[in-house]
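Issue: ligand-bound run for calcium ion - logging full I/O for the record.

Environment: standard queue, default settings, no custom constraints.

Inputs:
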Amino acid sequence: MTWVAMTAAAIVLVGLAQLAASCGTGQVVFDEIVDWDNTTVAYPTASRSGTSVALIGDVDGDGTGDAAFGSPLADLSDGSVTIVMLNQDGSANSTSVLSKATSALTTMLSTQAGQFGTSVGGAGDLNGDSVPDLLVGAPVLGATGKVIIIFLTTDAGVSSVTTIENGVGLGLTTLVAGELFGSGLATIKGVSTINYATHALVGIGLASGQDRITTQIYGSILIATLSRVDGSVTAFTLFDHSQSGMAPVTLGSGFGSAIAAGDVRGTGSPLLAVGAPLYDSARGRVFLVDMDWTLMAITGMTIVEEGALGWTPTPALGSLSQIGTGVMLADINADGCVDLALGAPGAEEIGPNYGMLAVLLLNSGPSSIAVEAFTRISYSANPALQSAVTSTVRDVRI
Ligand SMILES: [Ca+2]
Ligand SMILES: [Ca+2]
Ligand SMILES: [Ca+2]
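Outputs:
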């Protein structure tokens, strides 16, 4: 099993292994670490490379899935995304950088520092040419932020581009200026009402989303159904703080900074994990959001934070840990129960560097969510990482 853990200085693929036991028990151990650094993948400097990452499918058709990572502060915050063709062992075979220097993106990205690459996502092929395509969030591009859908060629070039924004898939005034639309991106699988042969479902974060009644900023998420003919939005729902089920989200929490989806309860229906890393002056937390996908409604929220649900990390993460800057849901230990991983880039550490990745092994059911074991992956806790990890963990994806 391969993870991609992103840091500002290196990109680390971590293979994790564990003997399967009953759900949520046991210990996660490292199986393999593959480090991408500037000798294997060229990063733009001071670009926050690794702010986002996604495994996007097999772009070049060699049988191995490929990856993409964002560098939103590249080129004075115009941003870039690097597509990495992977070898089977997780090493980089070749790379392709998408930025305003890419002709299909020049006009869109040249107008301002839009932080293209703040989020990246893969929803498979969205234009019917069998090549997986790429979604990229640029949360300060234009007044409201945009999600850009990039139709890829097999050499990781761009065949064409479309967007999700006001007037393109959304209503003319769906998004309000300054909401940071595209701060997080997730592909949502397993929703019974979606025909995945013809459509994809994605969750998009608005980390500064406004309550539409009070105009105060809480953070929001937008769920969009995309056509696999041309990537266009065929339906969407915006969950701002004024909507039913959103009351637990607090002011200024950055809700929507990161999103993931997975069938945590084992009911056959995914819930969402939504990061709110600015909660409590940047302590951060994650909301597990139960959804009624037929009604497209939020039915409940479970809060994951230090000290809750049985997660009691030692040493404590501290008051600026920014829990939920990155989130991932996946069955990490292959025991049949979906687990949660969290990036906490400000977590206090023993040693010179802050930041950690928390792996929370869950044992959940239709009416309960419990953390039964947890593992700290960080500079100080894992000597094997010390040669690779020199800065903070932003994001994790499987
Ligand atoms: Ca490939
Ligand atoms: Ca395609
Ligand atoms: Ca599991």
